[in-house]
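#lab-general

N.A. 3:47 PM
ok so I finally got the sequence cleaned up, no stray characters, all 137 residues accounted for. can someone with queue access submit it? mine expired

B.Y. 3:52 PM
send it over

N.A. 3:53 PM
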Amino acid sequence: MAKLIFSKAKVLNTSSAVQMTISNITVEGIEIDITPDTVNIENNRELFESYTGRIVVRTTNINNDAGSAILASAFVSNDGTTPTEGKLQLVGQTGSHTITTGNTFIMGHKSFENGRLETVLVAQAAATDSESVLVVS
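B.Y. 4:20 PM
back already:
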C-alpha cells in the first residue's frame, strides 16, 4: 500500500477539467476524512445511510500556479456567495494516490493559525455511496 504523499492540489470543474493548480501545499495542513451518516432502525441498530467526504488543503501561496489569486476564482467562495460547482483534488507524488472529491462547493479563506499566512480550501461532498464522496486513484 502506498503512502499518501501529495505534491499539489487542483481545482476541477464538474467534468474534471483542471481550473487551477496550487503548489506549496503544507503537509501538516491536509485533512482527508470520510464520515458515515447513521440512521437508527429497529432494535437500536444503526445503518450507514450516507457518507460525507471532506478535504482541507492549506498552502503558503495566495496565488495559483498561473499567478491568479486563489480566493478570487469563480470555483472558490470566500464571502458566502455560491461558487461554481467543482471538485478539489489532491495530486499524489509518483507511487502515491490521487484523491478527488465528488462535485461540491469549495470554500476558502486566509488563515494565520500556524504563525504564517496560509490560504485554506475546504471541500465537502455527500452521497449514499462511500466510493463517490472521495475517489481514490
